[in-house]
């Protein structure tokens, strides 16, 4: 269990109230499934993001669960005006409706501020004065494993006259740094936070909240039990599990689906030529859904279905047989 591996984390002696040092002996009660689809409004939904939307929706429906849309519109420099409404319109055309009001990260700054204040009070966060180049690993939402060096902990014991630029979460040392989790698609995963990541940024030098903090706070406050998302975020999962433990939040289950790749070998995106979905007829909607289902490895028999709602009913059934429910 991932939680067990963080209980050996270094917690300052004066952090008596910290969740890492307190143990709840209440036996866990399986809560009702709550999942989410969390697009960033950096462009219209395309056939790659449809795969993720469909997988998360199917998993929620297969578990008779709740499916919530969360708009991850925090990274203001990257957000495109109108893209959020465009995504919501596309989801509506597909018949994928959020079961609860849509959550907008841009309206939740006070919640992220509170989490950072708590972590700071518990001695788990420290200011970092390193330059942008040194913290580049945390500036992008996604980075490939091994593509960046772990933050070396330069500012762990003080700024040494530098100005605070960003705020970092202290990760455990030695064995406690090895995070383990089981991905429902990818299988057992391990990441060493100390050697592969280092103390990671929660609030960036440009004043923006880091993706890692916002997503963990939101998953906790929305009582998310299951996270289904693209495999580009597999590399962030160990950090998020550690941060959940730091905040006293339960760890959700994870399922990372294979990415749709562009011709350049990168994740399909607006930048490398992903076309917006054209969903102006029922046939076009069904064709887009069938392509997404094929990418997810669902049976070719689904291709014979002529109506969207019949397709969904059959897809939920095969998903349930494959992933439980
Ligand atoms: Zn630093």
Automatic annotation (TrEMBL):
Catalyzes the tRNA-independent activation of glutamate in presence of ATP and the subsequent transfer of glutamate onto a tRNA(Asp). Glutamate is transferred on the 2-amino-5-(4,5-dihydroxy-2-cyclopenten-1-yl) moiety of the queuosine in the wobble position of the QUC anticodon. It is an enzyme of class 6 (ligase). Belongs to the class-I aminoacyl-tRNA synthetase family. GluQ subfamily. The keyword Ligase applies. Binds 1 zinc ion per subunit. PANTHER family: GLUTAMATE--TRNA LIGASE, GLUTAMYL-Q TRNA(ASP) SYNTHETASE. It comes from Pandoraea capi. A motif ('HIGH' region) lies at residues 39-49. Residues 34-274 form the Glutamyl/glutaminyl-tRNA synthetase class Ib catalytic domain. Residues 1-41 are annotated as: Disordered. SUPFAM superfamilies: Nucleotidylyl transferase. HAMAP family: Glu_Q_tRNA_synth. Its cofactor is Zn(2+). A motif ('KMSKS' region) lies at residues 267-271. L-glutamate binds at residues 36-40, 72, 211, 229. Keywords: Aminoacyl-tRNA synthetase, ATP-binding, Ligase, Metal-binding, Nucleotide-binding, Protein biosynthesis, Zinc. Its EC number is 6.1.1.-. Zn(2+) binds at residues 128, 130, 151, 155. ATP binds at residue 270. This is Glutamyl-Q tRNA(Asp) synthetase. NCBIfam families: PRK05710.1-2, PRK05710.1-3, PRK05710.1-4, queuosine_YadB. It holds the Pfam family tRNA-synt_1c. Gene3D superfamilies: HUPs (3.40.50.620).
